[in-house]
Amino acid sequence: MLERDFLEFINENRLFGSADRVLLAVSGGLDSMVMTHLFHQIRQPIAIAHVNFGLRGDDSDGDARFVQNKAQQYGVPFHLTHFDTVAEAHKRGISIQMVARDLRYDWFAQLVQQEGYACVATAHHQNDVLETLLLNLVRGTGLAGLHGIAIRQNNLIRPLWFATRDELEIYAQEQGLQWREDSSNAEDKYVRNRLRHHVVPVLMSMNPSLFKTLPQTIGKLRAAETLMREELERSWQNVARISDDRVLLASDALQNLTEPVFRLAEWLKPYGFSIDQTAQMWQALRHQPGQVFQSATHRITHEREGLLLTPLSESADYYLTLDRLPDEPLDVEGRFSLTFNGFEKPTDFRPPTDAATVCFDADRLHWPLTIRPWQQGDRFRPLGLNGHKLVSDLLNDQKVSRPDRERTAVLLSDNQIAWVIGRRLDHRFRVTAETKRIVQVSMQ
């Protein structure tokens, strides 16, 4: 019965082909020994991999020998590795369970690449699915966490997903299979064990058909998540204004959405923002612009039009000098480029109206010229004004966003700002009636 269900489950979910070599993750416990036996029964090409985490002394070494002997009995390739799991957990600053999981899956991935296996099979079953669902629920989760354990994740498969542990144990006894008992499974040291020993039995007493209804419940949750993702994508298209490496989430469009905080949290999760931050962003939209939220890689700035998402700028620490007019466009740290052109002043000269292009009186420029990021305290004399002005005040007046402020640079002649690049020419370097030669600079 179990063999038939096993084969039907594999075929229904198209987990692998009949000629594929499958790498089995085998601990030596009941679940993995049943899985190994089932693969042997259907004559699937397999290899066995075992990880000795060194957590139980002689028992861990005994598990490794047991699994190796079984691989020899089945006549299949055997892979073994050892880890100092405790030392690695201290080194990484995470729990032993988490580091053990990372270590074994990283090793499995290496074996797949080196040996050409089609996939890795683990012996997770319905009880594991339920325990993972409950564990995620306790820790706090969205719909994805309520799936429990997926049947397939890339090249990782769970061919026993359909079965309960009781069914596996009955089958093992019927087939006279041997396995190793992990003594730690009987302890309440780990949260998963406490769920297994104390919570699941209560749920089973409330609903004896729990494991029959669980796949249906998970199927409904997956369907609900699919619909949710489709709606999130649709509303993202309506809200997001994308330009190069920045995204503006328009406040007027956000205001018309249901559950805006949830949508923001889902949209911004890949950029490292937390649910608490997104709740604060939503509150910020009710107040004056200017508030900033930051993750490890990105920044959200509350602008007048909405929430502006940009990557964190790299350190703006550069200082370029020019001894003469460059023949080719000048790249400024990958942020923008400047094209220089010198010519005699034409009789019908008209100054450019676009702030991205300026014309200097060539005789007023003193070489070398310098290009650097603007700094707090920088002053210049804006074109058409008598007095001086702080560059910071100019940026405030022009309502320049924080990311664009960080990208703003200045061009200096004799340590005097001749141009706030792309924004305003200094009055002292303008073209006048007496100008004979012009240096024109355009920013791209």
Structure overview:
With 444 residues, the protein is α+β, with helices and mostly antiparallel strands. The protein has helices spanning 2-13, 30-41, 58-74, 85-92, 96-115, 126-139, 165-175, 191-206, 210-239, 251-255, 260-268, 275-284, 391-397, 402-407, and strands at residues 22-25, 46-52, 78-82, 119-121, 152-153, 156-157, 240-243, 246-250, 292-294, 298-302, 306-311, 320-322, 330-332, 336-344, 357-361, 369-373, 379-380, 389-390, 409-413, 416-420, 424-425, 437-443. The strands form five sheets. It has a six-stranded mixed sheet with strand order 3-2-1-4-6-5, with helices on both faces. β1 (22-25), α2 (30-41) and β2 (46-52) form a beta-alpha-beta unit. α4 packs across α5 (96-115) and α11 (260-268) packs across α12. Its EC number is 6.3.4.19. Residues 369-441 form the Lysidine-tRNA(Ile) synthetase C-terminal domain. Keywords: ATP-binding, Cytoplasm, Ligase, Nucleotide-binding, tRNA processing. It catalyses: cytidine(34) in tRNA(Ile2) + L-lysine + ATP = lysidine(34) in tRNA(Ile2) + AMP + diphosphate + H(+).
